[in-house]
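Below is a typical protein record.
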Amino acid sequence: MIEITTSNSTNVKELLFAFGNLRDEVMFMTMTTPTLRPFHQKNPAKKTFATDPRLQSKIQNQESTIFNSPSPLNYFTPRRPTAAFTLIELLAVITIIGILAGLTLGAAGAVRRHGATSTAKAEVAALQAACDRYFADNNQYPTTNSMPDPSSTSSANVNPSTSASYSTAGKVLFNSLFGTNQYNLPPSTKRYFEPKPAMVSSATSANPYFSDPWGYAYGYNSDGTNAPLIWSTAGQTTEDGKNKWITSWPKM
């Protein structure tokens, strides 16, 4: 019996070959002792999963996905500067928006004033024409003595929102041209003027008056013989604004 001790199992065949000239009766018993790994080395059996090419490829793909994904949780991704407005840029934008809004509102207000002025001129002309038709049938104009002459420089009661003379003269004009003292009633006499509801101070109350686009009563003055004076104060409530009035007579 021959005992052979070796640390490498591959050397067994070579040693057996060296004793190949022994007789057949000699029995060989081969035993190999595995070499113990040093204590500081990790168990290579635990790394066998990494030797599989498929597993290695899968792990590499996962690592590439994690490290290259732009996730906020990925600390390996280089941070890029975030696009944002500075305070100066925001203030500049707000200032520009404010300027544009002011220009738009100013233009809209000018358009409304121009439209109201055009409407008032058309309504004054329509009332003047209705008074002429009334005079043709009755040989006189609707007469009121409560309204002073607005063309004189010393005229009083120029505030249509507080002066009772405006509403009193306006009621006389409405009853004469509309043929009744209430807008929603049928006429009892000939109707010379058909106003829109917005032009009447009240569509349901008795004794209304004609109102201009600014909501004030139209001024009316006539002695029955001479052509009447019809005007709108165009939203003015003081005598200083008379140059802005819309009148049936030419202003100097």
